[in-house]
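Researcher: Here's a chain I'd like modeled. Treat it as a single chain, no partners, no ligands.
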Amino acid sequence: MKRNLILSLSSDSCSSSNNASTEQNGATEFSPPESAVRKEKNELKSYSELKITGPPLYNQGVVTESDRSQYSQLLETTKKNADRMLLDSNRTALLIVDVQPEYWSECPAVRQDFPHFPQRLSALLEHCRAQHLEKCIWVRADYSSYEKSPWLAQFARLHQGRIPPIVKPSSKWESFAEPQPGEVVMTKTSWSSTSDTDLIDILRASNIDTVLVCGLITSVCVQHSAFGIFEAGFRTLLVTDCCADRGKARHEAALALYGDYMYELCTVASIQHELRPRTSRRKNHKKRRPSLPRAAAQPTNYATSANTSRMQLSPKQKRIRVTSCTNKISVPASAC
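Model: Modeled as a single isolated chain. Structure tokens:
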């Protein structure tokens, strides 16, 4: 019975492979099996159904006229200040989340689907530094203490050891992503870079209004960090090609869920195009004032000018002749 079943399966596989190949004009044309076609369609899925195009609730609660008026004023202010939506290097910060060996060079599951991540992140760092970005902030994960990271106990219970919860970071950096002197480096003990850190205080003290977010892992720490920055009131932009995840599907699904809903989506190319020092823009658009014509020089009459200073008199003009009627009297200059 078992032997017959094996033969049956082998014959089915052979017939399916024969059906996958058809001969036309003496040439063999390969047509992939249905399973491969279905797999390809799933990989090309755009997650468009995950996009939120309307309000999260049909009933928004008790909305008063004052609320509507305030919202209208906010929209008008946004339109008037459209120029402020341009990326100003003096008011923009770059946040690099968890780009460390534990999540890249020692994590094959991330590297296999994002081979261009190092080059893209290097290009982003180079451009931001060249534009003298106000702040480059590096955040590293340190999940080595159950006291500092109380969520570790629940994470361990949920996964029953399948995913090791403890992360003890080394002092090493990736060769393509290493902080320079003057850039901020901080440690986080949670998935969000804003939980129990000084990140928000640093951003506000530096007069930052826009934050570029990138790093590892897209659907976990990058996502949570972007949420925290957005909730604190900052304009948040996620640099999509400078993020990576444990699989491309997780990466794309995370962006489809919240991209352009809580944070804006951008790429390295768009940042290179838009991010410039704001002072240079003002200089280029500054109107030149027309130069005023200089008044023609008039000869000075030292004899009739009452406000003439002695410092303007030459040695030859030490005596001034004052004419009164027909009498000419010489008066020393010191007596004037």
